[in-house]
Amino acid sequence: EMCIRDSAEGVTIALAVVVVSDRIRLAAGLRRRRFHMDELIVAPDYRSHGIGHQMLEHIRSLAAAEAPSYIIANCDFMNVAARRVYEDAGLHLTPQGSDRFEIAFS
Question: How many angstroms separate the CA atoms of 76 and 83, rounded?
Fold first, then answer.
């Protein structure tokens, strides 16, 4: 869990929750680490200030140290602003149905 607070206001302005799990394929004896970005939320008054991008970069740096097989997040198809943040950060959106995308870190 990563949290950014506005010290002047004393409030949380952004939150990211990343679940790290290992999937083991018993037949092959392989372990695959997965990062799943469960939440990435920036308070409305603080959006469009680069905070979401900053959080994504921090998550990427954490992932670089852990070397997961993949990193995913889900994004509502209709959430154009969120999609723009992911795309601007160089992430690849893959349609997963009529209403959401899966985001893959490159």
Answer: 8
Q: How far apart are alpha carbons 106 and 94 in whole angstroms?
A: 12
- Nearest residue to 19 via CA among 86, 68, 87, 61: 68
pLDDT at 25: 66
Q: How far is CA 60 from CA 11, 23, 64, 79, in A?
A: 25, 20, 6, 22
Alpha carbon 59 to its chain centroid, in Å, reads: 7
Give whole-number Cα distances, 90 to 22, 52, 83, 87, 93, in Å.
25, 13, 11, 5, 10
Report pLDDT digits (tens) over 86-101: 888 877 777 777 777 6
**Edge-to-edge strand ranges of the sheet holding 11-25:** 2-6, 11-25, 30-42, 70-76, 100-104, 92-95
The residue to which tokens 């949380």 are assigned:
12
In 3-state terms, what secondary structure has residue 12? strand
Amino acid in the structure at residue 56: L
